[in-house]
Structures are given as structure tokens and as C-alpha cells.
Design brief:
Residues 29-48 bind DNA. GO terms for molecular function: DNA binding. It holds the Pfam family TetR_N. This protein is an all-alpha fold. The protein has one domain (52-186): Orthogonal Bundle (Tetracycline Repressor, domain 2). It is 73% helix and 0% strand. The protein has nine helices and no strands. The chain has helices at residues 2-24, 30-37, 41-47, 51-70, 80-95, 104-112, 118-140, 146-165, 175-186. Helix 1 packs across helix 2 (30-37) and helix 5 (80-95) packs across helix 7 (118-140).
Length: 190
């Protein structure tokens, strides 16, 4: 029975960390996280080495859902161009939500500024995988310089999600996908 309680407390803490850090930033206090989760600080420290470890675990837990959201639902039948554009279409849909605050992984990297922080390591890994996904798709699609195109695509992704998350840009007019289409065309992508 105690194992179930700990798992439940752990899940509640990870969920609270996901919600509060996305909404308020990584500076949210342990007291607020524990209060949101309905878990004592003592229990939190029994489950995690500290807030840094809890934040990293929360980010890690969200990776499958995040990556599944960006993956084309019929990847095996889609062209590399369609798979790339799907990522930006999904971001555009997400950005339409009033609670959208941008890419949670980019936000962590920007806020923490410490590349060795456990949460930064997780977030950087997610961004590196996205870059590699773009590079592989660009290569499959015949881009002249797949590495450069991948970097350009991540730049558009991060810039568009950050600006939309800061509520200074609206993506519902197709700005991100139009920009990406121009990059794909310029790179000679099929």
C-alpha cells in the first residue's frame, strides 16, 4: 500500500511541476508545488533529491506526449515535407490555446541558463532530437544542406513558439507554415 501512495504522490508532484512551471516559470517555489500536488515537503524530499530533480523528471515524463503531438499520424505514408510541415501545423494549433506559453523545453533552457542543470539536460535532449528529426527528414526529402535546413527549422520553431507564447505573435494566419514552406522550397526539398 505505501508504494501506491508514493507513486500517487510522485505523479501528483510531477503533474504540479508540469502545470506550475509551464504557467509561472521554473522559479516557482517548492511550497507552491507541494501545495498544488497536495503532498508534504517531507514526502517530496523522500521522492526526489530536490526541486531540480523533480523538474527534470517532470520534463522527462512529458516527452512521449510532446513528441507524439509533433509526429505525423500517418508518418509511413507522408512525405518528408508533409512530416515537417505537420510539426508546424501542430504548433500553430497549440498556440491558439489561451494558455499557450510556448515550447516548455525551450522555456526551461532560457530560464535556467545553466546547461548542467538536470532539467536543462532533459530539455536540450528534446531540442536536439527535434533538430535531428528535421535533419533526417530534410535528407530524405533531398534538401541541398540537410544540416543547415534542420537548424533553420528549429530556429523558426523556437522563435514562433516563443513569440506566440509571449502573446506578441499569432500563428493562426499560417505565418510559421508559410515561412517553413519557403525554407523547404529554397533548400530544394521535394
Amino acid at each position: 500500500m505505501p508504494t501506491t501512495d508514493k507513486a500517487s504522490s510522485r505523479d501528483r508532484l510531477l503533474g504540479a511541476a508540469a502545470r506550475l512551471t509551464y504557467r509561472d516559470g521554473v522559479g516557482v517555489g517548492i511550497e507552491a508545488l507541494c501545495r498544488e500536488a497536495g503532498v508534504s515537503k517531507r514526502s517530496m524530499y523522500q521522492l526526489f533529491d530536490g526541486k531540480d530533480a523533480m523538474l527534470a523528471a517532470s520534463l522527462e515524463q512529458r516527452i512521449p506526449r510532446y513528441e507524439a503531438l509533433l509526429a505525423h499520424p500517418e508518418a509511413e505514408h507522408a512525405t518528408p515535407r508533409e512530416r515537417i510541415l505537420h510539426v508546424f501545423e501542430q504548433m500553430t494549433k497549440a498556440a491558439a490555446d489561451a494558455d499557450y506559453r510556448g515550447c516548455p523545453y525551450l522555456a526551461v533552457l532560457v530560464e535556467l541558463k545553466d546547461p548542467e542543470h538536470p532539467a536543462s539536460v532533459v530539455a536540450r535532449g528534446v531540442k536536439e532530437r527535434l533538430t535531428e528529426t528535421f535533419r533526417a527528414e530534410a535528407e530524405r526529402g533531398g534538401a541541398q544542406d540537410p544540416h543547415l535546413l534542420a537548424r533553420q527549422l528549429v530556429l523558426v520553431f523556437d522563435g514562433a513558439s516563443a513569440r506566440a507564447g509571449a502573446q506578441v505573435e499569432h500563428l493562426d494566419d499560417g505565418l510559421a507554415t508559410t515561412t517553413v514552406t519557403a525554407l523547404l522550397d529554397a533548400a530544394g526539398m521535394e
